[in-house]
Specification:
GO molecular function: cytidine deaminase activity; identical protein binding; zinc ion binding
GO biological process, one term: nucleobase-containing small molecule metabolic process
Pfam family, one: dCMP_cyt_deam_1
Family: Belongs to the cytidine and deoxycytidylate deaminase family.
CATH architecture: 3-Layer(aba) Sandwich
Strand content: 25-35%
CATH class: Alpha Beta
Distance between the termini: 33 Å
Strand order of the largest sheet: 8-7-9-10-11
CATH superfamily: Cytidine Deaminase, domain 2
Number of strands: 11
Shape: globular
Organism: Thalassobaculum litoreum DSM 18839
Oligomer: single chain
Helix content: 10-25%
Largest sheet: 5 strands, mixed
Length: 183
Amino acid sequence: MSRVALVLPAVDRPDATTPTPLGRLTVPGRAIPEKTVWVDPAEIARLRDAARDVATRAHAPYSRFRVGAALIMADDPQRRAITGANVENASYGGTICAERTALTQAASLGLRKLELLVVSCVATLDAPVADRSPCGLCRQVIHEFGNRDPETLVVVDGGGAGALGDVFDLDRLLPYGFSLGQS
């Protein structure tokens, strides 16, 4: 299958400011321009299937919430599908999510530029995207390995017939990602 153009719509939310007797409170707005990215639906489907498969091997004895992730790194000349599943721990703090497991695997191979990540929460495929998208910690780690050329994309498995998933770029996934002043 060939690549197709995908238009990520513009987001334009102005600041919302409320005066108080002790000073104003501002809810920051955000302006994200429309952008067109190129995706290969066959590659997304391949990663989705790999994420679903690895989710079946997740170690989730406490939550029973099995998650799988599969990714491709832009700096991997072999374009391998690197996978990871969530691994829970009785201490909870020792738990690692599928997205971070896959990214840790990629980093241990010396890879640093995330191109495409597909996440699958097989038990919640038809749930709202908030119930099946990466957690905040994973979003920050994704941001750390994120890339602008080519644009890092995250696809959240959408389940359902005919659905490949919901697509996010870095700006839409984590609008205010922490970066220590680096771009």
